[in-house]
Amino acid sequence: MNKEKIIKDALILFLITLVSGLLLGLVYEVTKAPRKKQQEKAKMDAYKKVFKNADDFKDLNFDEKGLEKFLKDNKVAKASINSIATAKKDGSDVGYVITVTDSEGYGGDIVFSIGIDKEGVITGLSYLSISETAGVGMKVKEEKFYGQFVGKKVDSFVYTKDGKKSDEEIDAVGGATISTNAVVNGVNAGLLAYKYINK
Questions:
Q1: Is residue 114 within a helix (H) or strand (E), and if so which, with residue range?
Q2: Reduced to 3 states, what is the DSSP secondary structure of residue 189?
Q3: pTM value surpassing 0.85
Q4: For the stretch 118-154, what's the b/e string if a residue is b when 16 or more beta carbons lie within 10 angstroms of its beta carbon?
Q5: How far apart are CA 177 and CA 171, in angstroms?
Q6: Mean pLDDT of the chain
Q7: 84-93, 133-142, 163-172: range with highest mean pLDDT
Q8: Residues 68-108 pLDDT 10s
Q9: Which of 43, 145, 158, 190 is most buried, most CB within 10 Å of its CB?
Q10: What's the rounded mean pLDDT across residues 54-71?
């Protein structure tokens, strides 16, 4: 094979790669605004699910580094806080919606929002992203599981396989200990975030 053929093939390959890259960039730019709008809608839908009596939500600025350290100091290093919004009703603050990512899920990150009212009572939990094992880990998405958190005011939760005996205990999903643990740890991270912004 002569040099000219090698150079010609390399140039053709370069041009194909360049055009493909430009087209991908164009598609990304064209779809960026609709994707952002869809993500915002999904977030607002989750907020409304977890805080039904609120009529507005305002993003809250908080010290992200300070909160991250606070979570680590309290042994919740595998979860992070994505955002915190103040829930409002008729212009008055009624609580918070805290969006959490826990990286301990069996199928990867589990992202959800939890509502916590001004008294520290959990008002709801709604999943934004979850890909646990179908028929097993995905049972954490069922109200039978996540409903155990709602209406509770505790410092933190633990899961049990022997039947819950207190408000702090959550019945684990059978065969899905990893998924159960991820959600419980994520909720605990949300409770710590609530404490952090209210200290």
A1: strand 110-117
A2: helix
A3: no
A4: eeeebbbbbbbebebeeeebbbbbeeebbebbeeeeb
A5: 10
A6: 89
A7: 84-93
A8: 999 999 988 789 999 999 999 999 999 999 999 998 888 88
A9: 190
A10: 92
Could you tell me the two tokens for 65?
A: 């580094």
How far is the CA of 38 from the CAs of 32, 43, 84, in angstroms? 10, 9, 19
Residue whose structure tokens are 């309290």: 74
pLDDT for 6 equals: 83
CA 67, distance to chain mean position in Å, is 16
Three-state DSSP state, 138 = helix
Domain boundaries of the chain, sorted by first residue: 50-197
- For residue 44, give the nearest of 115, 104, 93 by alpha carbon: 115
Query: How far apart are alpha carbons 172 and 102 in whole angstroms?
Result: 17
H or E segment and range at residue 92? strand 92-102
> Which residues lie across from 127 on neighbouring strands?
112
Question: How far is 27 from 34, CA to CA, in rounded Å?
Answer: 12
Q: Which of 61, 64, 122, 59 is nearest to 86 (CA)?
A: 59
Is residue 137 within 8 Å of residue 105, measured between CB atoms?
yes
The tally of CA atoms less than 13 A away on the side-chain side of residue 162 is: 3
Split at pLDDT 50, 70, 90, the class of 41 is confident
Task: Read off the DSSP letter of residue 155.
Answer: S
Task: Write the DSSP symbol of residue 31.
Answer: H
Q: Say if residue 195's pLDDT is above 60.
A: yes
Tell me the H-state helices in 51-95: 64-73
